[in-house]
Amino acid sequence: MTEVGALPVEVTSFVGRREELRATRKLLAAARLVTLTGTGGVGKTRLALRAATEVRSSFADGVWLVELAALRDPALLAQTIGAALRLGDTGGDPSARLVEFLCDKKLLLVLDNCEHLGQALAELVHELLVVVPGLRVLTTSRHVLGLDGEHVFPVPPLAVPPVRDLAGAQALDVVKLFADRAAAVSAGFTVHSGNWPRVVQICHRLEGIPLAVELAAGWLRVLSVEELLARLDDFFALLRRGSAVVPARHRTLAGTVEWSHELCSSGQRLLWARLGVFAGGFDVTAVERVCAGDGIERDDVLDLLAGLVGSSVVQAERPAGTTRFRLLEPLRQYAQAKLRELGVCEELRDRHRDHYLGLAEQAARDWGHGPDQALMAARVRAELPNLRAALEHSLAGAPAVGLRLGVALEFLWLFCGHVAEGAHWLERALALNPEPGKDRARALWIVASSLAFRGGGEQAVALGREAEAWALEHDDADELAHARLVLGGCAFLGGDVDRAAALFRQAETDADGEVLLQILLAAAHTAVWHDDGEEALAVASRGLALCGEQFSRSGLLGIRGLAHWRLGSFAAAAEDLTAALRSARPFGDVLGAAKAVEFLAWTSAALGQPDRAAELLGTASAVWPLVGGRPLFGFGRMIDAHEACAADVASASGARFRPAYERGAAAVADLDSAIAFALGGGTPDERPAELSRREYEVARLVADGLSNKDIAERLVISRRTAESHVVHILDKLGFRSRSQIATWITRRAR
Q1: Does the predicted TM-score (pTM) go above 0.85?
Q2: 592 inside domain
């Protein structure tokens, strides 16, 4: 020890955490009590010790670590702290002696692993802070102390974002940690071109939890990276043992989790086990409906859940104003093991299945009846991991329920960007449910729709005809309308425009509600390619007049824009197509967006904007693969129009064509970025509202990757003001994410 105080020497390197360190240092400069919270193994202690080391020069009387994990009797708190401070125990009141010793000191106390000491620790810390003005306290705990003036910093796992290459992998702190610990046990280990995808996958499977990553890397002394990845399914068994020099509580991840589990109340332990039935996140309603009963009163669920959140067992997240919860994967696996021990796995999975079946069927009933589709779609999309789990469980034991759930999710599969996945589930369900019935008929035309999108015309027609036959036999007008809509789509994509138009007319006679809007959309599309722009315009306008919801409105606007293009009303076409793109974005409607970007490219060319048209052609070329089928559906007349547009634009742009085309394609990282690029570069009248000078400055910093806190520091403004600027920028530009702002800034800089 070279300075006053007592901090342990680091025996392994400290990797990453630059932003967390900066945040912790800033809190310690501003507040007298800082608590680092987070799940076991996330790195609270290492972060606290490194932060304490870096601020040590600010404390004349040193920085002192007090390890509290082994302390079970709260009455011994003052003695334990005194011993860490090397304060001799001479009898008397330990608290009074501690106060007397500290009263004129300027020092930092690091109290590590405080969660099990509860109120006793809170009272002692409060007393010390009141009477010792030069004292600052940094605690690590699964719980906050709950004192006035306490500043809490939740320590996150190390980030494991998607990466595309070796350089991206090597830049990740979590990969650096894995490599450092692996090299310590396997001389010469490096992350290289041959192993980086598997290393990233290991880190992802461990959710970036540092302790888990370190323990896993330690097994490279006897396993290859490939073998380690393969064994992660038996995660806890693999990590059951560890280095003998590691403290017992940290010897294995399983030990860490077990240690946390012992600290929970019996009700919390039971709820923790039952939460293992969920996949991904969940909301409190799901917990109440799935986990209550047999030892947990429904009225107690919220308190028990709050306790688990406070203990860092459950993570609470608040996307879009709602609260969702989740277990990190190691803790979920532990919960599942406990659930198996209790012998109630199947019962809980049945409850889970029934809850999500009810959610799906309610969403299906509400889908076509109002303006809240985007919120509904977002909610159902957030539950996709749970819906997948419910489908898997149903198909394994109750195939009819699996079929019922699969068809209830029609809107998710067909309208929210999950077409191929829907076909995957429903093809399995159809194979397990060969008996005719309404659910089977619905599944047939849903799968047929998917096949048609992907070029499987003959099989799609066969399935559509089977659905049509069932509907005719049972006089089911709704199923008949859907079946004929699909058959008409197959005819259109096969180039038989006359037959498609006839089938859509037949389907319309049997239809109402949402399916009628889809039929009108298809009929208008067909009319455009039947060289009847006026009819297409009339049909699309009729659909828009009937439309009370957003999804069909997006498609109808796109087709009306195409009709305007066909009729030579190019400014009107651009207006409708831009509106269609904005409407498609909340649903993740890849197909609708692909068509709108393509048609907007044609319109830009017709408006005499060849460079912009070239960009949009490039963007469309990158979006069509996201659809999962053939570009432009393989429909000959659309392909002809595309090629004619590309030839005209190339001729008009000359040497500028290829760079512009590649610029448009390169702008597409995902659907959001594609839509942002298409919207951000329209004609002056179509561009979003201009940003103020300060907003543009903030937008540039967002594009540079700065957080709101970083922006506030850079511009010497409050964090709230920075957040407000970002919200206004998103609103003005019609964006949903910071990445879209970055794309917009990048394009304007070119």
Answers
A1: no
A2: yes
